[in-house]
Design a protein that fits this description.
single chain, alpha/beta, Rossmann fold, seven-stranded parallel β-sheet, three-stranded antiparallel β-sheet, 10 strands, 32% helix, binds fructose -6-phosphate
Length: 242
């Protein structure tokens, strides 16, 4: 695992460089997308490159990590809507080429299976962008998740719902209790994992990810087994590394 410690602006440029390399080198590039605060500066940098340098997403497919269950189609926090606003619309990425697990489906297990099939049919993910939760989750694989898990329904922990309440008028009761998430086994099949973390509140999770034993209690630690994993952190997030 490669760990880079740098100021946040530099981390965003490094991640954007890796994404641009995939976009330019593949006929049908496949990107894995995360929501949350961590990738926002990367999406800003990609939008800048699209506007100023013509970086094109037209041939790319995008697969989201996760989705809340039960939010109305037009809810601004539905991850499909979040991704459309934060990246897809800003870089001219055709909406039908960016998908996520269908948290509004009546048959959720079938939606999860269909999502796994659509990723496989696209040839798998070339580069997966990741954030990390303060409890060490990646996507919504909360502590205790099987390291071999696939896309499935999960219950969100109280901690994660509190962490995400800032997107729901600071009201934890508005945060959905369930989600659909790619499993750790699904994520591990991406050919390159790029995880971003900034801030002291991520320091324990980064310490466990980089230096802890691989354990389902810190799900991100499974990345230690990946052949090509890059961890991009600022000084604060790196502050507990030995
Ligand atoms: C979002 C996701 C989550 C976040 C994590 C960190 O699609 O999969 O795992 O990456 O909760 O969130 P932020 O970046 O908001 O600190």
């Amino acid at each position: 695992m490669e760990v880079v410690i740098a100021p946040a602006e530099e981390l965003a440029v490094l991640a954007a460089d890796a994404i641009e390399a995939v976009l330019r080198s593949r006929d049908e590039p496949v990107l894995g997308l995360a929501t949350g605060s961590s990738p926002l500066a990367v999406y800003d940098e990609l939008a800048r490159r699209h506007a100023e340098q013509g970086l094109s997403f037209e041939r790319a497919r995008g697969f989201m990590l996760d989705e809340y269950v039960g939010l109305a189609e037009d809810h601004p926090q539905r991850y499909r809507n979040v991704i459309a606003t934060e990246i897809a619309e800003r870089v001219g990425w055709p909406a039908e080429r960016v998908t996520g697990p269908d948290g509004a489906a009546t048959d959720l297990p079938a939606a999860c299976a269909a999502y796994e099939e659509s990723i496989a049919a696209a040839g798998g993910v070339d580069l997966q962008i990741l954030g990390i939760g303060t409890d060490g989750h990646i996507a919504f694989n909360e502590p205790g998740s099987s390291l071999a898990s696939r896309t499935r329904i999960k219950t969100l922990t109280r901690q994660t719902r509190e962490d995400n309440a800032r997107f729901f008028d600071d009201d934890v009761d508005q945060v959905p209790t369930h989600c659909l998430t790619q499993g750790l086994g699904t994520i591990m099949e991406a050919r390159h994992l790029v995880l971003l973390a900034t801030g002291r509140h991520k320091a324990e999770a980064i310490h466990q990810l980089v230096e802890g034993p691989v354990s389902a209690m810190w799900p991100a630690t499974v990345m230690q087994w990946h052949q090509h994993a890059t961890v991009l952190v600022d000084e604060a997030a790196a502050s507990r590394l030995q």
